[in-house]
TrEMBL record:
<dbReference type="InterPro" id="IPR028081">
    <property type="entry name" value="Leu-bd"/>
</dbReference>
<dbReference type="GO" id="GO:0006865">
    <property type="term" value="P:amino acid transport"/>
</dbReference>
<keyword id="KW-0029">Amino-acid transport</keyword>
<dbReference type="InterPro" id="IPR028082">
    <property type="entry name" value="Peripla_BP_I"/>
</dbReference>
<feature type="signal peptide">
    <location>
        <begin position="1"/>
        <end position="23"/>
    </location>
</feature>
<comment type="similarity">
    <text>Belongs to the leucine-binding protein family.</text>
</comment>
<dbReference type="InterPro" id="IPR051010">
    <property type="entry name" value="BCAA_transport"/>
</dbReference>
<keyword id="KW-0732">Signal</keyword>
<protein>
    <submittedName>
        <fullName>Amino acid/amide ABC transporter substrate-binding protein (HAAT family)</fullName>
    </submittedName>
</protein>
<feature type="domain" description="Leucine-binding protein">
    <location>
        <begin position="27"/>
        <end position="337"/>
    </location>
</feature>
<keyword id="KW-0813">Transport</keyword>
<dbReference type="Pfam" id="PF13458">
    <property type="entry name" value="Peripla_BP_6"/>
</dbReference>
Amino acid sequence: MNMRAILLATASAAILAAAPAAADDTKIGILFDITGPIASFIPPMMDSVTLAIDEINDGGGLLGGKAVAAVGDTTGTTQGAVDAATKLVNIENVPVIAGALMSGTTLAAANAVTIPAGVPQISPTATSPDFTTLNDNDFVFRIVPSDAYQGVVLARLVLDQGIKTVALTYANNDYATPLATGFAAAYKAGGGTIAAEVKHEEKQQSYMSELGTLAKDKPEALVLIAYAGDSGTTIVKEALENGLFTRFVGTDGLRDNKLIEQIGAENLADSFFTSPSAPESEAAAAFEALYTAKFQTTKDKIFIGQTYDSVMLAALAVEKAGSTDRAKVRDALREVASAPGEKILPGEWKKAKELLAAGKDIDYSGATGEMEFDGNGDIPGVIGHFVVEGDGYKQVGLVNP
């Protein structure tokens, strides 16, 4: 685990939560996996929270007062997610929550806390297909594509790279298992061969037994679906050290700077990754300008656009509802995110607030794409193709399955 990243993330959370809210301020719940397997993702994502909250307050505030981020840390565990969500709902009395991030922590918070309490929840990053069929009374939304889609995209990309035989290993969790299932079905349907497939447990000291099975028939690459901060880095390191694999294919959980830091860019030159991304658009360019003006660069800062979009959507729904009534906020969310209405881009909170005050319809166009939620609270989204370049990751295209 990257201790510097954890300290930075914790410090960011403390800063956001430090100032007590005034009576007329409105809290937005931020339920993030600040510590745990994706800790190194968090500091730039917390910067996106700051960016959105500052924009709201500089542009007239929220419901006549200021917007305040109430931050809860899931610790990257299901019980931690339940505990943090319970505090946000029952103690902080938030009308809406942005988060959580990992599929397992998001599902735990939703099933145990937010759905029963009737609190709308918008995840920037949770990708499990289980959200599509969740019995949530329309209280749970996400702004990344389902892994059912990313699995198909990953299969298409692997085949397009001319890789006909792979080994597949994936972590036994709510994120990796359905993604691997979708990949395997699509890859085999496209003519690929999976020489060996192993589900592995997280937090093991060694994976040499699993790697021996995976490498037995000498497949061309190892498809590894796991978090780099958990099993992913250990598996790649042991595979390289023992000459078992030299080419790795991963998804967003593995596309972590921690992997490059621990393995070395030169050892990942032939590897590639998929991750939710954003199409080129006026909205994406607006976000890029806003973020870089405040935080220097967007390079290698994964999910920062999705984070900004989730906080802005949460605040727009509250402003549209005209109150902190949770059911009204839920209903308003679809209205501010969907056509028809005047387009609202990143950086245009003040414009949105004025239009809503005048009784006009708005349609938020996000940093990561259009936010047209379907009946299940999903959006289509896009998937990027990433490679390692220098000391970071470079997107070299979008993948159409």
